[in-house]
Design goal:
This protein is α+β, with helices and mostly antiparallel strands. It is built from five helices and eleven strands. The strands form two sheets. Strands 1-6-5-9-8-7-11 form a seven-stranded mixed β-barrel.
Length: 226
């Protein structure tokens, strides 16, 4: 409807059958309405997305190969059971941070690396715990979402580092800028399995004490990529 009205007003202006001031005002109203509809659609999309957990990986200590798992347990306030950051044995554990309890990356990023940069980075090589599909990770900072029976909170965006390039021997630093994944907090623990659905979680449905304890730690800017 709004597209048709836009076209009719533009035609009237060209044929000078409608006063220019009236046309200009009407076009502004239509443009604002179209923008409002577009924003509403995007917000609605963000509230109704659904994704999937494709891969689970852990490493018992820094720099060792990641182990592929079919299922594992997330521990609230701690992280991924058996992973080096849950046991404080990771490369950056000396700079422990609440947002590094679980790390995620989109499989779409790996596909883009191969397609656009000719770099094949396998799911066991990127050093994140969980690989997803159909999940807008960059938009989940400050948001709650569920994986299986667990609930995570997007703490801050993951940033790439040269260490990963050195470890895998592939030029991934620059291609991963702004799409290196998401560092999360585990708010509600439990079992997760590959194939689990990932979806937005209404914070009003969470245990009030768990939510309050999580939000006692404010969001922080991610460190600079290096």
């Amino acid at each position: 409807m709004w597209d048709a009205l836009w076209a009719a007003l533009a035609l009237g202006h060209q044929q000078q059958s409608v006063q220019p001031v009236v046309v200009a005002h009407a076009l502004r109203v239509v443009a604002l309405r179209r923008l409002s509809l577009a924003v509403t659609f995007q917000i609605g999309d963000m509230a109704h997305w659904r994704g999937e957990l494709l891969y689970i990986h852990v490493a018992p200590s820094a720099s060792v190969p990641m182990q592929t798992l079919a299922e594992t347990r997330l521990v609230a306030g701690v992280g991924v059971e058996g992973d080096r950051y849950a046991t404080r044995r990771g490369t950056y554990s000396n700079k422990h941070h609440i947002d590094r309890q679980a790390t995620l990356i989109e499989v779409e990023t790996l596909e883009a690396l191969a397609r656009d940069h000719g770099v094949d980075l396998a799911p066991h090589e990127h050093r994140r715990n969980l690989t997803t599909r159909g999940v807008p990770l960059n938009h989940l900072v400050g948001g709650y979402f569920s994986i299986g029976e667990c609930v995570l909170y997007g703490g801050r965006l993951n940033v790439p580092c040269r260490y990963l390039e050195e470890l895998v021997g592939k030029k991934v630093f620059k291609p991963l800028l702004n799409r290196s994944g998401l560092n999360c907090r585990v708010v509600r623990g439990g079992l997760i399995r590959t194939g689990d659905a990932i979806a937005p979680c209404d914070p009003a449905l969470l245990d009030a004490a768990a939510r309050s304890a999580n939000e006692a730690f404010p969001l922080e800017r991610p460190p600079e990529a290096w």
